[in-house]
Amino acid sequence: MTAGQGRPRKRVHLAAHFPGVNNTTVWSDPESGSQIAFSSFRHLARTAERGRFDFFFLAEGLRLRERGGRIHDLDVVGRPESLTVLAALAAVTSRLGLAATVNATFNEPAELARRLASLDHLSGGRAAWNVVTSSDAFTGENFRRGGYLDHADRYRRAAEFVEVARALWDSWPAGGPPRTVGHRGPQFAVEATASLPRSPQGHPVIIQAGDSDEGREFAAATADVVFSRHGTLEEGRAFYADVKRRLAAHGRSPADLKIMPGATFVLGDTEEEAAERAAGIRRRQVSPQTAIATLERVWGRDLSAYDPEGPLPEVDPVPDSDLVQGWAHAGDRFGVAAQWRARAEERKLSIRELVIELTGRQSFIGTPATVAAAIDEFVQADAADGFILVPHLTPGGLDEFVDRVVPLLQERGAFRADYEGGTLRHHLGLPAPRGTRAAADGELAAPGRPS
Q1: For the region Disordered, what residue ranges are annotated (predicted)?
Q2: Which pLDDT tens digit goes with each residue over 270-301?
Q3: What is the pTM of this model?
Q4: For residue range 173-205, what is the model confidence (pLDDT) as tens digits?
């Protein structure tokens, strides 16, 4: 059912993902700038705020990626720590939400709860935490306890981590001294007293990305925003319906959770120009070296002798290979390789052409008018509540979207003309944290309509 079929038009939510080290960024472009200079973060954040976006999103890697013991080419320039960058951005923005990716596997609840509460105070209620986990021993080597967690234990630890953090955020009532939080669980034994009073939002907004059944259930129980990855309207609607359906079992309503897939965009004055630009950008995103490196993550063996414009290797993957470190594991290497071979043979694709197809995100390609209409269609069709946009250029890649697409979304009545509230929860139309005094007395209650 769309807005014209009996319900009010839904508001589109938009966020900006800083295009740091990932397979979206085109570093060879003359307009590409530094991924660690504060001027780059400031430019993109201010552009997002000028466009009235909900929040600015930073990814994070705890260890530089390696191939055969050598640092990955893109990582040699460095990867800043998220909360440090966002604390600095809090001083040069006034309404934009600030979302940090922080690992729940290799941090501790009391310490991270304090850091996030500090950002929420400094920013006037604009902090968010993207909860991620890690299961690889390569990352674990950076930390005292080392090792790794089994896949299922990652989510158990994350859920208990969020539980302890929320208890600490709730432990300092208005007008009274803080209560000591005593927690004993499978993952944590904590006896702590919060060092800060309740922050402006009560709790920072919780973001989660995970498409497994465990990830979806964790999101339904815990998250305020889901950063998903689904490429078609049909896939998006299926994911949206599944996750929203799970909320009731946790005493939550569909409005309590926003689903915002990651997406790229390419604009042109005509559809043909946009399609041509998009094809060129994809080939620059997936260079010959990148295509081979992507294949090596699945095959687990040195494939540098293979022609990226040629067919996939006939050799089998190497199980339990440590050639490539720091990327998400392929899981069943043999199964993935078989799927890739079948797709390449069916479509007559080279290595590079296959990687271009497989690694592309949801992308909006066209004139500003067609892109605005497509984004609005996804939201009105309940395939998403909005999108986290990932430009291909650092730091100016969002400028064109803000200048040319946002005004058209505003004309359609699908996007705010200006901010109406000060906190990120207000921007997203989220309720106050359950069980808090703020929820009971309306102090942080969400508005009737998102700003």
Answers
A1: 426-451
A2: 999 999 999 999 999 998 988 998 898 899 89
A3: 0.90
A4: 888 899 999 999 998 999 999 999 999 999 999
Digit-coded pLDDT (tens) for 45-87: 999 999 999 999 998 776 677 777 777 676 657 788 999 999 9
Assess contact for 304 and 289: CB atoms under 8 A: no
Rounded distance between C-alpha atoms, residue 249 and residue 246, angstroms: 6
Is 419 annotated among the ligand-binding residues? no
Inter-CA distances, 137 with 70, 78, 330, Å? 17, 21, 15
pLDDT of residue 448: 32
* Cis, bond preceding 8 (omega within 30 deg of 0): no
The answer on whether 155 is annotated among ligand-binding residues is yes
240 labeled binding residue: no
DSSP string, 280-319: HHHHHHS-HHHHHHHHHHHH-S--TTS-TTSPPPSSPPPT
Is there a binding annotation on residue 151?
A: yes
> Looking at domain 3-268+367-441, does it have CATH number 3.20.20.30?
yes
CB 242 within 8 A of CB 249: no
Interacting residues of 105 by C-beta distance below 8 A, sequence separation 6+? 133, 134, 135, 139, 140, 148, 149, 154, 157, 158
Q: Helix, strand, or coil here: 131?
A: strand
Give me the residue spans of the domains in the chain: 3-268+367-441, 276-359
